[in-house]
Design brief:
The complex is a heterodimer of chains A (507) and B (402). In chain A, 68% of the residues lie in helices and 0% in strands. By secondary structure, chain A is mainly α. The chains are: A mainly alpha (507), B alpha/beta (402).
Chain lengths: 507, 402
């Protein structure tokens, strides 16, 4: 009787001693389980982000985040719905304190209502042992603490890797503003970068294409005495025609490249290309585009889609200005939408070649202005020269005019709608000065609504004295001669030349 | 609370300490003998001569104030020489003359030198704790403890104990030669050599022969013990010797027979938790070559494994070990510590093991390594919740036969 009462008392005391330990153990194991799951998720994100940095995998997206959150929630759920039993607590206490299964045996004896002196002594022994131990020693929280530190470290590493991966590609979610901020800071810290880009362009090839016109004018000046006045006027008019054609073609290419730049400016991957295009560094832009093609396998799917969409939209605007550039932009857009990296590389490389070619076709406005001045100094009256040219019946000249020049704009001659005033034309005389594209005076007065003829020879075609850039067989093949049988030079052309060279051209 | 039970670990520890003072350099053997004594079993000792086996049992008898007899087994020893015989008494009727087995502590020296018939007589007495002579069963004294030794030499005239009789021993202990430090202590304890007594000392004078002297002389001859009639024994259970009487300068007793029986009773009542018992069962099962969890060594070299009696012995020995450790419950450690001594003589190896010199000791070690203790379960998510359990699971999975 006394043994039974004593056993009951010991069992109650043991349970009272174990209950706080059970709750503490529940908390410890739950926290440890959740933190382990978190470590697992963060380690997976870290690996994924590292692979994205080295270009072997795309950046982790929202699905990865959802899966990780689900895993952590599942661990939390398991921890909440499965508290440790009293026997499990007792065995954990035995294990942690090295009690050699004393407490576990006592709990089993209490659970089975085992009577007898041995059971009483055993339970009393176990209760005394548990009473003497501090809870922090039996159920230490160092385990969850270590996992928390590990999770924090993994989280920092994963965030760093995500940031690093986002700097070269489309950054996910909230990292994009941070990336833009870093770019702004970087540009502010390194302003020389922009100047280097601006000073880079070389236009020796285009300058060389103006050399025949200079030679033509020199020859005309030297032989002026042996020629009739009509012949001199006709040759001057032909030179003026070539200059106008060259300026119009240059203008069209410049507009096309500007259009492409505007389209690419909104993409992360094409921003560098766009900036180079806007700065007039077409060769560098072409190189950047080719490099983008070579590294297209490192683009994230989102980045590819963004770039493809930009090129698709650009090709619609490019079509009237440069069909070749538009076609290549369209092919690049299609390739980017596919998964064939080699095809993408090839398409972007072709687009880069087209950009470089178009860039070479853009004549520096300063050089054109210098040539116009030289022409005006010799001819004194461009109107008279153009009239004489018309009087000599240069059919090709008229055709070329109709092909290269669009309908006059609403603004004054030589300006684009909304562009700089005619007074700005005086600035064109500054040779080599970089002039913002949007502020350049236009030869056509307005963007050409009519697309240039793709069969028309490129501005890169060699221009020789006596040859016109028009499509007429006589004018294109033979030297420039005045026949006096062609239609008069249209008024628009005079306006174009006058607008381009300013009022001085009329002298 | 039961004061006797509460003091039981201290008494057992005192017994062990006193034995260790006498038998130097053999702590494992001392612990093993006490485990068998408290567990109510018998011990089979293996080892070279001169390691103090007789001293151990004699000291134990002194400490427990129990009667001690030594039987030297020889090929011509008959069962009656052990269990006793009927003789015609002074009144003309038959009287039972008890054999040397009628003692509390019996040292059966080189038990494998006797014929199987004689061995069976002793082993039956060990198991049944009674002796049947002339159709009448006579109970052996309680407590009754046999410590048998085996001759390690091989050759003619040896009769190896069969497995069924080996199973009667709770433990098989192996004595090893002591190391240098132990030898130094043994030499210091020995004192002056009895072979060269000091001139003029007590050793020069003749001393009257005693019963113990006769017994010792008979032991040295290796002949059956000539037991004088009615000398200190009589019928039935001989009374324990008075303290310090007839035993020279042996250690003072710290327990008597009744105390030892109470200690054995307390030991048998120690609780075993279910998961510790499961561990012992898994250990016993793992010694069987047909079990899926058996290690490769068992599957290859074991002919048959531990019997159900081995499991009982494992629990009994673990209980005694727990008491000697000062606990009132059995732990995994107790089972692990006693498992080699309990299982090694119960595992029968095959011929290939003999050829490859694989002994039962290494097989039991492999079993202990292959069977993990059951840890408290945490959550249902195995690998995620307890990564440390994975290697154990892999090991168990690898241990399964293809």
């Amino acid at each position: 009787m006394q043994a039974s009462w004593q056993r009951e008392r010991d069992a109650t005391e043991l349970e009272g001693l174990l209950e706080p330990l059970r709750r503490r153990l529940w908390w410890q194991r739950g926290a440890q389980l959740v933190l382990r799951a978190l470590c697992l998720v963060l380690a997976a994100v870290l690996v994924d982000a590292t692979l994205a940095v080295v270009g072997l995998a795309p950046l982790p997206d929202a699905r990865v985040a959802l899966a990780g959150a689900a895993l952590v929630l599942a661990a939390l759920l398991v921890a909440l719905v499965r508290p440790p039993s009293l026997l499990s607590t007792a065995r954990s206490v035995d294990q942690a304190a090295g009690l050699a299964e004393r407490v576990g045996t006592a709990v089993e004896l209490a659970a089975h209502d085992t009577a007898g002196p041995t059971a009483v002594v055993q339970m009393a022994d176990a209760a005394a042992r548990v009473r003497a131990l501090p809870a922090t020693e039996i159920v230490p929280l160092s385990g969850p603490r270590h996992y928390a530190v590990l999770a924090a470290g993994l989280g920092l590493l994963a965030a760093g890797m995500l940031l690093l991966a986002g700097l070269s590609e489309g950054a996910p979610g909230g990292l994009l503003p941070l990336r833009h901020l870093l770019e702004v800071v970087s540009e502010k810290l390194n302003p020389a970068h922009e100047e280097t880009h601006a000073a880079a362009p070389t236009r020796s090839e285009v300058d060389a294409r103006l050399a025949p016109l200079y030679q033509q004018l020199d020859a005309l000046r030297a032989n002026e005495a042996g020629l009739s006045a009509e012949e001199v006027a006709a040759q001057r008019a032909a030179a003026a025609q070539q200059l106008a054609d060259l300026a119009a073609a240059s203008r069209a290419q410049q507009q096309a490249l500007s259009e492409l730049a505007r389209a690419l400016q909104g993409t992360a991957a094409g921003r560098e290309v766009a900036e180079n295009l806007l700065q007039g560094d077409y060769q560098r832009a072409a190189d950047a585009l080719a490099a983008l093609g070579r590294e297209s396998d490192q683009l994230s799917p989102a980045g590819r889609r963004q770039l493809a969409e930009a090129l698709r939209q650009a090709q619609a605007g490019l079509r009237p200005l440069s069909p070749e550039l538009a076609d290549r932009a369209q092919r690049a857009s299609q390739a980017l939408n596919g998964r064939d990296y080699r095809r993408t590389e090839q398409a972007l490389g072709n687009l880069a070649n087209a950009v470089a070619e178009a860039g070479r076709g853009v004549v520096p406005q300063g050089d054109l202005g210098q040539l116009g001045e030289a022409l005006a100094e010799q001819g004194a009256d461009l109107d008279a020269a153009l009239a004489a040219l018309g009087g000599m019946g240069l059919e090709g000249a008229g055709q070329a005019q109709s092909q290269t020049s669009g309908p006059p704009g609403s603004g004054p001659p030589g300006t684009m709608p909304g562009a700089a005033a005619p007074a700005d034309a005086s600035r064109l005389g500054a040779p080599g000065a970089p002039v913002p594209l949007d502020n350049l005076p236009s030869l056509d007065g307005a963007p050409s609504a009519q697309p240039p003829d793709p069969d028309r020879p490129s501005v890169l075609a060699p221009v020789s004295i006596g040859a016109t850039s028009g499509g007429a067989p006589t004018a294109a093949s033979g030297p420039l001669t005045a026949t006096g049988e062609t239609a008069a030079v249209p008024t628009e052309r005079r306006e174009v030349v006058r607008g381009y060279f300013g009022n001085e051209g009329g002298r | 609370m039961n004061a006797e039970l509460v003091n039981a670990p201290a008494v057992a520890a005192g017994l062990e300490t006193a034995l260790r003072r006498v038998l130097v350099g053999q702590p494992g053997a001392v612990r093993g003998v006490l485990v068998a004594l408290l567990g109510g079993g018998h011990v089979l000792l293996e080892g070279p001569p001169g390691l103090g086996k007789t001293l151990l049992v004699r000291t134990l008898a002194d400490l427990l104030a129990l009667d001690f007899r030594r039987i030297a087994f020889t090929p011509d020893l008959m069962p009656a020489d052990i269990i006793g015989t009927q003789v015609i008494g002074a009144r003309g009727g038959f009287e039972f003359l008890p054999g040397p087995v009628f003692a509390h502590l019996v040292l059966a020296d080189e038990v494998n030198r006797a014929t199987p018939r004689t061995q069976a007589a002793l082993l039956e007495a060990m198991q049944e704790r009674t002796v049947t002579v002339a159709g009448r069963s006579r109970p052996l004294p309680a407590p009754f403890f046999v410590l048998a030794t085996e001759s390690a030499a091989e050759g003619e005239g040896l009769y190896a104990l069969p497995e069924a009789q080996l199973d009667r021993f709770l433990l098989q202990l192996r004595l090893r030669l002591p190391d240098q430090e132990a030898l130094r202590q043994i030499a210091a304890l020995a004192g002056p050599s009895p072979l060269a007594p000091l001139p003029g000392g007590e050793g020069d004078r003749p001393r009257p022969a005693t019963a113990d002297d006769k017994s010792t002389a008979a032991d040295e001859r290796g002949a059956p013990l000539p037991l004088p009639l009615g000398e200190g024994r009589g019928e039935g259970v001989p009374p324990p010797l008075p303290l310090g009487e007839g035993r020279g300068e042996g250690p003072r007793p710290i327990l008597d027979g009744a105390g030892l029986l109470a200690l054995q009773r307390h030991t048998a009542g120690l609780p075993v938790a279910s998961y510790v018992r499961d561990y012992a069962i898994r250990l016993a099962l793992a010694t069987r070559p047909d079990q899926p969890g058996a290690p490769a060594l068992v599957r290859r070299y074991v002919r048959y494994g531990a019997s159900p009696r081995a499991l009982q012995a494992l629990e009994a020995a673990a209980r005694a070990h727990a008491l000697l450790e000062g606990r009132f419950n059995v732990s995994f450690g107790d089972v692990r510590r006693v498992a080699p001594a309990v299982l090694r003589h119960r595992i029968r190896l095959n011929v290939e093991a003999d050829v490859r010199a694989v002994d039962a000791e290494s097989v039991v070690s492999a079993v202990l390594a292959a069977v993990p203790e059951e840890r408290p379960r945490r959550f249902a998510l195995g690998a995620l919740a307890s990564w440390r359990a994975v290697p154990g699971r892999v090991a168990r999975w690898r241990g399964r036969p293809a």
